[in-house]
Write a structure and sequence with these properties.
With 528 residues, the chain is of the alpha+beta class. 32% of the residues lie in helices and 23% in strands.
């Protein structure tokens, strides 16, 4: 009798790790699904009016980053990138997300739970950022929660499809490059479609631009007249009136607030005997006035271009507050924009003249959305961060001792009257000039006081008076020109302003913190 021998069962196929590039691609696609779906759902909440604050995870994370960025780094961003600082920030966030998504995929390829944990952590960070935004509601986190869940599922699904099995003879099974790439491509395409649909959903409705197009501005009860001699006929000099398309914009809004005239209202409360809520229709029915006012950003370095001049149409804040029985102990108005930005303005700057406005128009047109449509504040004589609240929806009459605005704890003064200054526009720095008559020209500003004269000196010689163009208001900048008889050689040109009170421009150089820069603008040129 012979024993029958049975062969031992073949060992089960072993799971192996996916190739690194497949794991990385899995993470990248999963990240795209997370963001794309979350942005689509956030857009749905926004356009349906269900969002309490800012449901977009990308914008919320960006806003949270802006709020927590040290002041000197913000100053560097504005100085280096100017009005493109927001694009740079959003681009940087996108780059970081790509790197983290790749890292999550590679980690998941070695150990799935680690990669999934990284995706979950990023989702929790976004949820935290969303809930810290002004007026946030629990519903705002739903897009991010759903997007994160979809990203987790996608990452696990793709990692499984990218992971081969190894049989007892060492051959690979269960892995198809074509199948995996097809799955990744389909998921990636779905992510792109979702993200694109979210963008289209928000932009195609055009409710804010439609609302702006329907505005019919009333005639000003107090129109302004611009003298004919405000613009000097000099090539290269800054135009006296700034086109809204080129007017500087410095704010923290990564996504422009969208408010229609029908939705807008302003609440005035705090230390007043009577509170007031006013809508857009009521505001524009009041006797509106025109004012010529130059606005200046505190981030404007000596010789910088973060300022602009325009004709503003609006209702005087002084008149709005006149019947509200303002408490005599109040000394500040804390204004709040629709996106939660707060700005503190000395009360006396709003009540002692009728030039501080709730503005509805700029250079004869309704405010552009990027400049505060439908209503913003314009206050002459103060830097924008303590006066020029865009998309304003709330005015609280209070005291500096009781309330603090956004920029104050970030290293800026609570009160910031504009420091008068001047700038050389012509010639440009390092220009090559011909000997003989050459125009040195530019603009000068001393808002709320007025420009008495501008002077120029060459190679630190004696100061020479320049010729001023017309100026219809002490609240606007003024153009100036000095005819220089240039001699061959290298030269340094400087300018300074003397205001209507006889004060000379500060020559010592100082940065923008805490309340504006000082120093003289200068240009080095070569004459042949």
């Amino acid at each position: 009798m012979t024993a029958t021998q049975t062969a031992p069962p073949a060992p089960a196929a072993e799971r192996t790790h996916p190739r690194w590039w497949a794991a990385a691609l899995s993470g990248l696609v999963a990240g795209a699904v997370t963001v794309g779906l979350a942005e689509l759902l956030a857009a749905v909440l926004t356009v349906t009016g269900l969002a309490g604050g800012q449901p977009s995870p990308v914008i919320s994370v960006g806003d949270a980053f802006v709020d927590r960025t040290p002041g000197p780094l913000k100053d560097f961003a504005v100085r280096t990138f100017g009005e493109n600082d927001k694009l740079v920030l959003l681009g940087s966030i996108g780059l970081v997300l790509v790197v983290l998504a790749l890292a999550a995929g590679i980690a998941a390829g070695r150990r799935l739970v680690v990669g999934l944990g990284l995706v979950l952590l990023l989702g929790l960070v976004a949820v935290g950022a969303i809930m810290t935004r002004p007026s946030a509601s629990p519903l705002d986190v739903v897009p991010t929660v759903i997007g994160t869940a979809a990203g987790l599922w996608t990452l696990r699904w793709l990692i499984e499809r990218a992971t081969p099995t190894t049989s007892d003879d060492g051959s690979a099974a269960g892995w198809s490059r074509r199948t995996f790439l097809g799955s990744a491509g389909a998921a990636g395409a779905a992510a792109v479609v979702a993200g694109g649909a979210g963008h289209v959903l928000e932009s195609s409705l055009g409710s804010v631009e439609d609302s702006r197009a329907k505005v019919r501005l009333p005639k000003a009860a107090e129109p302004v007249t611009v003298p004919k001699d405000v613009q000097l006929p000099i090539k290269g000099i800054t135009p006296w009136q700034t086109d809204p398309a080129t007017f500087y914009r410095v704010d923290t809004a990564l996504r422009l607030p969208q408010i229609t005239t029908e939705e807008w209202s302003l609440k005035v409360h705090g230390k007043v005997g009577k509170e007031l809520t006013i809508d857009y229709r009521t505001l524009v029915a009041k006797p509106l006035v025109e004012r010529l006012i130059t606005l200046t950003c505190v981030s404007n370095e000596v010789g910088g271009k973060l300022l602009g001049n325009a004709v503003w149409l609006g209702y005087p804040v002084k008149d709005l507050l006149a019947d509200l029985e303002v408490d005599p102990g109040a000394d500040m108005v804390l204004s709040t924009s629709q996106d939660g930005m707060t700005i503190s303005t000395p009360l006396e700057n709003l009540t002692k003249n009728r030039d501080a406005l709730l503005a509805v128009a700029m250079n004869g047109e309704p405010l552009p959305v990027q400049h505060g449509f439908p209503v913003r504040m314009v206050v002459p004589g103060l830097y924008g961060y303590v006066s020029a609240t865009k998309w304003v929806t709330d005015l609280k009459v209070t005291r500096f001792a009781d309330d603090e605005a956004y920029w104050t704890p970030r290293g800026y003064s609570a009160k910031a009257p504009i420091k008068f200054s001047s700038r050389i526009d012509v010639p440009k720095g390092f220009a090559q000039l011909k000997a003989g008559k050459n125009a040195i020209a530019g603009v000068a500003w001393a808002q709320a006081v007025g420009v008495a004269k501008v002077q120029v000196r060459v190679d630190r010689g004696s100061w020479q008076d320049a010729r001023l163009a017309g100026a219809p208001s002490k609240n606007t900048w003024v153009q100036w020109v000095y005819e220089w008889d240039a001699e061959p050689g290298s030269h340094t040109l400087e300018c300074r302003l003397v205001d209507a009170d006889g004060n000379e421009q500060v020559e010592s150089k100082h940065g923008i913190r805490p309340d504006g820069s000082t120093g003289l603008d200068s240009k080095n040129v070569t004459v042949s």
